[in-house]
Write a structure and sequence with these properties.
heterodimer, A: mainly alpha, MetI-like fold, 13 helices, B: Rossmann fold, 2 domains, 7-stranded mixed β-sheet, 4-stranded antiparallel β-sheet, binds adenosine-5'-triphosphate, binds magnesium ion
Chain lengths: 318, 347
């Protein structure tokens, strides 16, 4: 188990390094001169030269790379061209919002998706299954930005149940925070809950006809134990994989959701920085996103080995 | 009247008493009958073997006892475990009986254990469910049970997962699980079919020891007559959902009365037959779909001795003239009695 995790951690680190290199080269391969973007279109050659020197852009690439790594290791992501404030502090305010949004969406989607999936599998051919299937179809086919707009229109503006936009930090008022973020989280989670519902249902249907479930039944275990400890636990192996893969979707979904609900999160930061060609911020945003993906993958693997003992042994053998 | 019928259902001296058990399945193509009016009894400490070709309804019959069949199954008849009726019992009642009074061992040790739980946990679960043991106490008992069924270094293996064990050890785990609560009846559905011969011998010994030590009655399902000869006290031969012959093991091998039984014996390898030029005999024809033969001997189409009577009326499962007290029963209009043919009229 330990060795397996170690080897996965090492893999993750290598991937992260590759990402850093790619981001570094990618930014420099973009069309347009960052110095010109910094200085403005009609700046003099001497001004450009000064800026190039200031940002180290006149140095050879390896030297630039080394400087870049050095800065990264100090946790310094640079300064925003647009606002002049440090990218670090911008991320520090934006990331928690997005983290909360996606985590809550994931939680809601898992509860709804796995719950209805299990029900649909256990009550096959009953109204519950039709209801769950209908729900999944809607969840998968209706774009969530449209759902979001509907929700704002009817629930926020119409019924006044939720604020239509804005955000309150969880530290200043947890209740207000929840009030602001619950609707976006539900909207963001609908697609995922539909996906999870379908996966859970089909995995559970398989598991329920598996020999070990028959064994569990023949042992005289309570029906609830047969469902949860035996069938569901095995089904979760598939569901966790899908949830992990879908987390990427969730993050990109968060970008749109944050726009709709005007949440000051990572998605909003991304879009703003792209529109304003704020290179240091874009660079940081890409790096953070990639890191998030790598960390998520690592966590999914970790969860895997908790659920499925066979994974642990496979890692030990290799 | 010189025939005897099978024991009356009201007799409660048997641990398990099955009478008139029929099972049919609702399928898209209509109703399919899988088990047809089966009578069966199992005495305390007895090992009864059930043999028959693949698809003749052995597993369905066994699963029906504890209500383990899917909802599409329609079960009628009676199955009494220590006098109390199992068929049609409430699910909550059955749940308390399963694993405690009647336990199962299934064919595939590779798939009948849950891959994500330790074997100790899976054995302990039964005890937690039926004897309200704590998890720690259940684990200790699991180790004892693993020792009982001959799993070496059980105290280490208790925390391992099924995939870390060989097929033979897994099947021993399944057996440990099945006998955890000291059931009265153990239903072993082809417990050795998936294992190689040496491992198989070990498993048979474990089962025999359990019977001798704990007095467990065993319903042993197999299509291997060699295994039957090895372990069973009595044999029930099934064909197309019906019992065609039932006899003490030695009687059946010495004196098979039903043509199907005789065919089965000829179709199974014996060492002495390899020495000669005899080849294994195949029984010609296919196992029929039961629903097409409601009023006939189901074996008639494959039987060399079939008469018009065989095709128009179903033979009862009866003993033979001259031995009304005997327990050698056959369902045949023209049974083969000690080598010479009898006419149905004489019975
Ligand atoms: N769920 C089901 N639905 C419909 N038919 C079924 C179902 N389960 C079993 N059957 C049918 O019942 C018959 C008896 O099956 P069963 O599994 O009892 O055979 P078996 O004697 O145990 O054979 P084997 O030696 O291969 O295990 C078969 O024809 C099978 O197709
Ligand atoms: Mg079977």
């Amino acid at each position: 188990m330990g060795r397996y995790l170690l080897s996965r951690a090492w893999q993750s680190l290598l991937t992260l390094f590759a990402v850093v290199v790619l981001v570094f080269l990618g930014i420099r391969a973009l069309p347009g001169d960052p110095a010109r973007a910094l200085a403005g279109e009609d700046s003099s050659p001497s001004a450009l030269k000064a800026i190039r020197h200031e940002y180290g852009l006149d140095r050879p690439l390896p030297v630039q790379f080394w400087k870049y790594i050095e800065q990264l290791l100090h946790g310094n992501l640079g300064v925003s061209i647009n606002t002049g404030s440090s990218v670090d502090s911008m991320l520090a305010t934006a990331l928690p919002v997005t983290f909360e949004l996606t985590a809550l969406a994931m939680l809601i989607a898992s509860l709804i998706g796995i719950g209805t999936g299990v029900l649909a599998a256990v009550r096959r051919g009953k109204p519950v299954e039709w209801f769950a299937n209908g729900f999944a179809l809607i969840g998968l086919s209706v774009p969530h930005f449209w759902l979001g707009l509907l929700a704002i229109l009817y629930l926020s503006v119409g019924a006044g149940l939720f604020p239509a936009s804005g955000f309150v930090s969880i530290w200043s008022s947890p209740l207000d925070n929840l009030h602001h973020i619950i609707l976006p989280a539900v909207i963001l989670g609908t697609g995922l809950s539909a996906v999870l519902m379908r996966q859970t249902r089909s995995a559970m249907v398989d598991a329920l006809s598996a020999d070990y479930v028959r064994t569990a039944k023949a042992k005289g275990l309570p029906w609830r134990t047969v469902i949860t400890r035996h069938a569901l636990r095995n089904s979760l192996i598939v569901v966790v994989t899908v949830a992990g893969l879908q987390l990427g979707e969730l993050i990109s979904g968060a970008v749109v959701t944050e726009q709709i609900f005007s949440l000051p999160g990572f998605g909003k930061l991304t879009i703003d920085s792209v529109f304003r060609r704020d290179y240091p911020v874009i660079q940081a945003v890409v790096l953070v996103t990639a890191t998030a993906y790598i960390v998520i993958n690592f966590l999914v693997d970790l969860l895997y080995s908790v659920i499925d003992p066979r994974v642990r042994v496979a890692g030990k053998d290799s | 009247m010189t025939t005897t019928t099978s024991p009356p259902v009201t007799d409660t001296s048997h641990v398990l008493e099955v009478a008139d058990l029929s099972v049919s399945f609702r399928t898209e193509g209509g109703t399919v009958s899988a088990v047809d009016k089966v009578d069966l009894r199992l005495d305390a400490g007895e090992i009864v073997g059930i043999v028959g070709e693949s698809g003749c309804g052995k597993s369905v019959m066994a699963m029906a006892l504890a209500g383990l069949l899917p909802a599409s199954a329609h079960v009628t008849g009676s199955a009494r475990l220590d006098g109390s009726e199992l068929l049609g019992a409430k699910e909550s009642t059955l749940r308390r009986i399963r694993g405690r009074d009647i336990a199962y061992i299934f064919q595939e040790p590779m798939t009948s254990l849950n891959p994500v739980l330790t074997v100790g946990r899976q054995i302990g679960e039964v005890l937690q469910a039926h004897e309200q043991l704590s998890r720690a106490r259940a684990r200790t008992r699991a180790i004892e049970l693993m020792n009982l069924v001959g799993i070496p270094s059980a105290h280490e293996r208790v925390d391992t997962y099924p995939h870390q064990m060989s097929g033979g050890l897994r099947q021993r785990v399944v057996i440990a699980m099945a006998v955890a609560c000291g059931p009265k009846v153990l239903v072993a559905d082809e417990p050795t079919t998936a294992l190689d011969v040496t491992v198989q011998a070990g498993i048979l010994n474990v089962l025999r020891d359990l019977r001798n030590g704990l007095g467990t009655s065993i319903l042993f399902i197999t299509h291997d007559l060699g295994v039957i000869a090895d372990i069973a006290d009595r044999v029930v031969v099934m064909y197309a959902g019906r019992v065609v012959e039932s006899a003490p093991v030695q009687d059946l091998f010495d004196d098979p009365r039903h043509r199907y039984t005789a065919g089965l014996l000829q179709a199974s390898p014996k060492p002495d037959r390899y020495a000669g030029s005899d080849r294994l005999q195949e029984i010609p024809g296919l196992v029929p779909v039961l629903s097409t033969h409601p009023d006939a001997c189901t074996f008639a189409d494959r039987c060399a001795n079939a008469s018009a009577q065989c095709r128009t009326s179903e033979p009862p499962l009866v003993g033979y003239a001259g031995e009304p007290q005997g327990d050698h029963l056959a369902a045949c209009w023209h049974p083969n009695i000690s080598g010479h043919e009898e006419n149905a009229e004489e019975r």
